[in-house]
Write a structure and sequence with these properties.
Helix content is 48%, strand content 16%. By secondary structure, it is α/β, with parallel strands linked by helices. The chain has two domains: 23-196 and 384-400, Rossmann fold; 209-382, Glycogen Phosphorylase B (Rossmann fold), CATH 3.40.50. The strands form two sheets. It has a seven-stranded parallel sheet with strand order 3-2-1-4-5-6-7, sandwiched between helices. Strands 10-9-8-11-12-13 form a six-stranded parallel sheet, sandwiched between helices. The protein starts with a helix and ends with a helix.
């Protein structure tokens, strides 16, 4: 008699675990603070607004500074970024991932959706543990094909992760093709979900509001570069083009560069700033309030990237209805499919000089773009988080083989 009862109880336990699992999605972002937290909040809110009915667990950083939807269970388990050394950061991250796997073993979600991985070898083992021990599905969002600054490396551990997960989310078709060709991933396992708009407001204490306001008042056409000043974002292209442009540009154009500049470009940035009064350089990490005021006081955002899958800076300025001047990369020109929101150039210094001149010679076009209500409505609809949330639910449904 004991054996049938034991079997029956085990069946009930399995059924109960499956029922809990079917209603639960785990969303994981170890880097969920500042700008990346804004992405997470938008994604989770879009998922809820699109009608997702299940439980959502958000494993995030202890530095998480966003406001997740009320029904999301926020679990701040990643504290590595508070540690002082690389070794302590790695140990802390390992401990957090071990906790995640242990919780999955005792109370699993049906899907574990990772936004970023930090230690690919360890992360690969965790993916295997989730799939084999917890018998769950694993999805990753590939915001970039490979980490910035190391695109030319082989990344064998990252390749193993790509091939091990049940599905991969990317932001555009170009990224999907690169992952397929470079890492041998079945294209049927890759889905495209757009990057939604990032909201910047005046929260926080601005340190540079006065100098931004004073500088902007001296110019009749103001350009803006925001975010990390790096080679992959093309800051050096802009800094080389700017002196050539202002030499013959009509009127009094100005350029604000705001955000921490990588060490390799600091010399160029500081020299250009010293030699040209038409440039305001704010070389540091700044608050949302400073970014907000920089966007408010400028006319055109310049994104001269050498490579990018999708740009949070692009979606930030578009959310403020700001015209853009972008290099001709799929992740940057995609909005032009829905509306003419600015200008494009070929990615070269010469091309940028010509494009800046086209803008300066017809400054009224800036106001026309800003005032085009139909165009901005089309952009906001195309990148609406609720649409992204609806498509995400479809991806989850495909992975588990039924509605979630």
């Amino acid at each position: 008699m004991a054996t049938p009862v034991s079997v029956s109880n085990a069946g009930e336990t399995d059924a109960s675990r499956a029922a809990v699992r079917a209603r639960r999605i785990a969303y994981i972002d170890p880097q969920s603070y500042h700008g990346l937290a804004k992405y997470d909040v938008g994604y989770l809110r879009g998922l809820c607004d699109a009608g997702f009915k299940g439980e959502v667990i958000f494993y995030c950083s202890t530095l998480f500074d966003g406001q997740a939807p009320d029904r999301v269970d926020v679990r701040p388990i990643f504290a590595y970024n508070r540690k002082g050394s690389a070794v302590l950061k790695a140990l802390s991250y390992m401990r957090s991932m071990a906790r995640l796997v242990l919780e999955a073993a005792s109370s699993p979600a049906e899907i574990y959706h990772f936004q970023w991985f930090k230690l690919p070898v360890l992360d690969y083992l965790c993916v295997l543990a989730l799939k084999r021990m917890a018998r769950t599905k694993v999805i990753m969002t590939a915001h970039n094909v490979a980490p910035h600054g190391s695109e030319n490396r082989s990344h064998p551990a990252l390749g193993r992760i790509y091939r091990a997960v049940d599905a991969i989310v990317v932001h555009n078709g170009r990224t999907a093709r690169e992952i397929t060709e470079r890492f041998g991933v079945d294209p049927a396992r890759i889905s495209v979900l757009r990057h939604g708009p990032i909201k910047i407001d005046a929260r926080g204490r601005p340190r540079h509001r006065r100098c931004i306001k004073r500088f902007a008042a001296q110019c009749d056409l103001r350009f803006l570069f925001i975010g990390r000043g790096s080679r992959y974002k093309g800051l050096d292209i802009l800094l080389e083009a700017w002196p050539r442009f202002v030499r013959t540009a009509p009127g009094k154009p100005g350029l604000i560069v705001i955000g921490a500049v990588d060490d390799e470009l600091k010399g160029l940035a500081e020299a250009t700033d010293r030699e040209h009064e038409s440039l305001l350089l704010i070389d540091e990490y700044v608050t949302d309030a400073d970014l907000y005021h920089a966007i408010r006081k400028t006319d055109v955002a310049v994104l001269p990237h050498r490579r990018i899958s999708q740009s949070g800076a692009l979606l930030t300025v578009l959310n403020r209805r700001m015209p853009v001047l972008v290099s001709n990369l799929p992740g940057l020109v995609e909005p032009f499919q829905f509306a003419e929101v600015g200008w494009r150039f070929d990615g070269s210094v010469e091309g940028l000089v010509d494009a800046l001149m086209r803008v300066a010679e017809r400054p009224e076009r800036v106001a026309e773009i800003r005032a085009d209500e139909r165009a901005w409505n089309a952009i906001m609809e195309a990148y609406a988080w609720r649409r992204i949330g609806s498509h995400a639910s479809d991806v989850y449904k495909t992975v588990v083989g039924r509605p979630v």
